Amino acid sequence: AANAMWGGRFSAGVDAIMEAINASIGFDQRMAQQDIAGSRAHAAMLAEAGIISDSDAEAIREGLLTVLSEIEGGTFQFSAALEDIHMNVEARLVELIGEPGKRLHTGRSRNDQVATDFRLWVRDQCDAAVPAIRAVQKALLSQAERGADWVMPGYTHLQVAQPVTWGHHMLAYVEMLGRDVSRFQDARARMNESPLGAAALAGTSFPIDREATAKALGFDRPMANSLDAVADRDFALEFLGAASICAMHLSRLAEELVIWSSAQFRFVTMSDTWSTGSSIMPQKKNPDAAELIRGKIGRILGANLGLLTVMKGLPLTYSKDMQEDKEGVFDAADTLMLALAAMAGMVETMSPNREKLAEAAGTGFSTATDLADWCVRVLNLPFRDAHHVTGALVALAEKTGRDLPELTLEEMRSVKPEITEDVFTVLSVDNSVASRTSYGGTAPANVRAQIARWKEALT
Ligand code: ARG
Fold first, then answer.
1. What is the model's pTM?
2. DSSP assignment of 66-114, as one string?
3. Does the annotation count 278 as an active-site position?
4. 327: part of which helix (H) or strand (E)?
């Protein structure tokens, strides 16, 4: 039999494989609540504008509430023959209330309907991402507080560069995640316009009130161009873009945690509750949560590229390709929320190892820059010359298997006779970090000020 919703011109039903490739109900049922909210706003507006009667609108409203409770209660029978959430809801509505249900689709199309539902869904996800990111920030902040002045190596090229503080390193991620929050907020503000009422693509001849439906659904205004309204998916791409950047940040942190929990580093010990063992090697404790975050992030990046690829060749306006917009976004949203929750839990419960961090902070000639700066400040050498002198001292220390503070004053003077005993004060890692008082630098006083600022911002 032909399709009950659009089968007027058809004499036969679709092939089983056609139904399988066509149906989106398997995933778009996640937008049921948004679909029903959109339909309720549309029906109320139709009555207000005199397009349908008040009693029809009331029957539709009641019917939609019943449909929603059936879906929420798990008794709703989803049908692949009815393709998607829009037609599943509408068909059940008609089953429940009869003729008034058939008037709901006046001045509307599935094209503006799906664009509306999906926007509402993605908007909710932008909102949900914010507290989830904040939770990771709070966990990092409490780690920063715990070791605001603990010294550790700062790296470039994963080679020891200069000593920094643990608190400073934690706060670097707090900053990155702060920008992630604002990216989701920006995306939300930009996507908050209503496609509803664009109808199939050209608008409608019915005297609909798009301002009213926009307002009822919490949108700032209706979208200005009906073709754009049904054709574009940049709102979903902005969500995926924000999610991808946030995911990339999580993945870098996860990578550091994997490195830091290795036997060669031991900078942190992950809590047992966020680790697993090996079925053969009894000694093993693996940072699986960090590895899984790092691994799962690929799904988010993939979804981002996947949707760009779906969209890039489509002429205006709607094409069925666009039905492929949802699964990637759903999966990316789920993955991001899971990764954020796991990261918050892991960071909250991990134990930084103060001694290991301090021990590593002094390796790799990490105070060489302090020595060069000292030569500039005290001996008035041009920085390039100071760099050269220091390089020679590093070479001397390296050749004899020692660190810079272990060189004798005589050895130092063999390279640069003007060097005095005072130089040794700048070679300690504690003095090094304490001296980095420039704004944004790693000095503990700076770090404490930033912790205070973030504490305020996050409460
Ligand atoms: N299930 C469809 C989607 O997700 C809804 C829109 C269908 N519109 C259409 N004219 N076939 O994109």
1. 0.94
2. HHHHHHHTT-----GGG-SHHHHHHHHHHHHH-HHHHTTTTT--HHHHH
3. yes
4. helix 325-349
- Exposure on the CB side of residue 167, measured as CA atoms within 13 A: 24
Q: Which of 130, 58, 119, 67 is nearest to 94 (CA)?
A: 67
Residue whose CB lies within 8 A of the most ligand 1 atoms, among 22, 110, 196, 230, for a mutation test: 110
Q: Is 414 a catalytic residue?
A: no
pLDDT band, very low/low/confident/very high, at 249 (cuts 50, 70, 90) = very high
* pLDDT at residue 4 is higher than 80: no
- Of 200, 5, 233, 228, residue with least CA distance to 110: 200
Contact of 35 with 193, CB cutoff 8 Å: no
Measured in Å, residue 301 CA sits from the centre of ligand 1 at: 25
pLDDT tens for each residue of 15-66:
999 999 999 999 999 999 999 999 999 999 999 999 999 999 999 999 999 9
Phi, then psi, of 194 in degrees rounded to 5? -95, 125
Polymer length of the chain: 459
- Greatest extent of the chain over all pairs of C-alpha atoms, in Å: 100
pLDDT of 326 over the 90 cut: yes
Residue nearest to atom 12 of ligand 1 (CA): 323
Sign of CA dihedral 191, 193, 196, 201: negative
**What whole-number distance in Å separates Cα of residue 292 and Cα of residue 25?**
29
DSSP 439: T
Residue 373's alpha-carbon distances to 107, 204, 425, in angstroms, are 73, 72, 12
Catalytic residue among 182, 278, 319, 351: 278
Q: Is 111 in the pocket of ligand 1 (CB under 6 A)?
A: yes
With the most atoms of ligand 1 within 8 angstroms of its CB, the residue from 19, 28, 323 to mutate is 323
What's the 110 CA to ligand 1 centre distance in angstroms?
6
Q: Check if the beta carbon of residue 379 is closer than 8 Å to that of residue 416.
A: yes
